[in-house]
Design brief:
It holds the Pfam family Lactamase_B_3. This is MBL fold metallo-hydrolase. By secondary structure, the protein is mostly beta strands. It has one domain: Ribonuclease Z/Hydroxyacylglutathione hydrolase-like (Metallo-beta-lactamase, Chain A, 4-Layer Sandwich), CATH 3.60.15.10. Helices cover about 10% and strands about 30% of the residues. The chain is built from three helices and 14 strands. The strands form three sheets. A seven-stranded mixed β-sheet has the order 7-8-9-10-11-14-12. It has a five-stranded mixed β-sheet with strand order 5-3-2-1-13, with no helix packed on it. The protein has a two-stranded parallel ribbon with strand order 4-6. Helix 2 links the parallel strand 10 and strand 11. It is globular. The protein starts with a strand and ends with a strand.
């Protein structure tokens, strides 16, 4: 079986990930919670959320297919603070680490803390990472770049940021993160296929 993924961005921190006809949705947002984004109506085999906030946990937007497919991945939840105060302001948010032989990827939810070495070791050398870069509620551009440099993933997909079209006003603009990266590749579509041959890059997906 080929070790390749199709990752599709649905805006904010919501993604679908497909592997061998199995599709998962991660962090669907509730209608009218994120400025500029339209309501979600998605289909999948499973849905996962990183934490219990409305812009990440609206599982009602996902219709679960009626079949016997089970996830081909082993899931490890890594709890992290949603802020720089050990979670006292915004609680916790999990990093979701998905693994199978020859393939590892992670969704970083609303991580807001600087990760310790114990967590860093589990997250090194991922094939793909979906990471917030907008600050305010999560780590910002500089913190995200520092974290990426520590874990050295192959494909970095930024999320949870602001542009002229969408995103919370209090978030930093995507360009502030991209200015720190020297391997940016912009896609005209919302999906990226990740294969063993996919080169290292910061992949900017287009919201459709």
């Amino acid at each position: 079986m080929d070790n390749h993924l199709i990752i599709t961005w649905h805006g904010h921190a919501c993604f679908s990930v497909t592997y061998d006809q199995f599709t998962m949705i991660i962090d669907p947002y509730k209608d009218n919670t994120v400025p500029g984004l339209t309501p979600l109506s998605l289909f999948a085999d499973e849905v996962y959320t990183t934490h219990d906030h409305g812009d990440h946990n609206y599982v009602e937007a996902v219709t679960i297919r009626d079949n016997d497919r089970t996830t081909p991945f082993r899931l490890t939840r890594i709890p992290c603070a949603h802020d720089t105060s050990q979670g006292r302001r915004r609680g916790l948010s999990d990093i979701l680490l998905f693994e199978r032989e020859g393939l590892r990827f992670a969704h970083f939810g609303d991580v807001g803390e600087e990760l310790g070495e114990d967590k860093i070791e589990n997250l090194k050398n991922l094939d793909a990472v979906m990471i917030p870069v907008g600050g305010c509620y999560t780590i910002g551009p500089e913190e995200a770049k520092k974290l990426i440099d520590r874990i050295t993933p192959r494909v970095v997909i930024p999320m949870h940021y602001r542009t002229e079209r969408y995103g919370f006003d209090e978030l930093q603009h995507l360009d502030e993160f991209l200015a720190l990266c020297d391997d940016v590749k912009r896609y005209e579509e919302s999906s990226i296929e990740i294969t063993p041959e996919t080169p290292a890059q910061t992949a900017v997906l287009t919201y459709e």
